[in-house]
Amino acid sequence: MKTTMEGSAEGKKVYKLVLTGGPCGGKTTGQARLCTFFENLGWKVFRVPETATVLLSGGIKFSDLTTDEVSQKASDHRTIFKDGIPEHSVDKTASCPRCLAAAADKPNGSEAYKFQENLLRTMIQMENTFFELGKSCTRNCLIICDRGVMDASAFVSKEKWDRMMRTNSWNSVELRDNRYNHIVHMVSAANGAEAFYSTEDHACRSEGVDLARELDYKSAAAWIGHPYFDVIDNSSDFESKVNRMIECVCQKLGIDTGDRLLTTSKKVKFLVSDLPKDSAFPAFQDFEVVHHYLQSAGPRVQARLRKRGQNGHFSYIHTIRRPHLHGQSIEVKTQLTHRDYLNMLTQRDDAHFTIYKKRRCFLVNNQYFQMDIYKDPGHPRCKGLILLETYTSLSGDKLKGILPKFLNIVKEVTGQPDYSMFNLSLKEDWSNTKKFCYSLHDQDEGEFRANGHSQKMINGKA
């Protein structure tokens, strides 16, 4: 279990969650259920409304922000699809954030572009207001954002999105990775539950199934790269889907749900033999990742720092791992400022190498993957090492079926100590050290001992 959040000295939690998803994915119902669940736990829950809906409901008309060509097509009450964008009837268009983004992306859509920019500024300010309320709240606080800043990037060209970032001195690491603790994407019913996909009960939904799938993927792809991103697919009935969504939030927070929710997902890890060309991958984000292990209070506790970022912008996380607590492995993660990160570096454990990686994040088969490519300098055992990770409830042939076909996956290594980052970073050979961590899952988990352990081979190298 993992948790990354802001907190007070008394241990109060403030958790900032983005709930997003494709058309007819269950986002609205899920938000209501999530709110009730956490209020029943005694948490204070704030819900940040979807900013586009708030502003557009104030009287702004889509037709006022677009060209005559679009207005003329909008007057046709049939649903028109052009370049993958739904062009609705006049009434529906008045409150459609996707159409607004599409208009902003047109060459002569300057008014719509400016409105989209101001919409993002408003979203950030609205969210900041709720974030500040969360900090001042005396109880644990969950803040649910109905979509987040990066959702807007799904329907605007990269050129115009980059222009918006430059103009406002924004960057993706801050807006995507540092702003929110957790992203949950509810997959559209059009992707795996087609019989339940409907446009009848939504004033701003007229997408066909194929277009809904495309919009669903774009919405999810906008968040590729966030360190805590869960995709809730349609592999179960809707009730179970909502429970899985609530469960994944509870898991990240380290909340024991007992028998109220079924345990469905776990982290799985695979050894990959080589790195294909970039062109073999779907849309991806690459990050520079640096891990430092710190001196800890005892042999059963692991402490580390993580620096993660791209294009010169970074986030910093401090992790304390207590291997055995009430039958579970617990990781408590705290976001740090750059200054705090530098101060904590003085606690580095000299028994460990610093770990350098390139982390590639991507979506395949409605599954979010992170692939770590180990880089020099480091122990020779890490040379050429590539590990793929994801969270899933599947196993056996079903698990194999969702893995990326373009990767040469050697074997599953979930739970194997030879592929633990803690062990990989040890400076001493495993046959000569007493610090090797055998397991974090068995009854003796977290014990560091040699006990005649012989050096293993990883990726063909000792």
Automatic annotation (TrEMBL):
All residue ranges annotated as the NadR/Ttd14 AAA domain in the record: 16-240
MF terms in GO: GTP binding; phosphatidic acid binding; phosphatidylinositol binding
Example GO biological process: photoreceptor cell maintenance
Listed Pfam families: AAA_28
Domain of life: Eukaryota
Protein name, UniProt field: NadR/Ttd14 AAA domain-containing protein
Name of the gene this protein is made from: 5573556
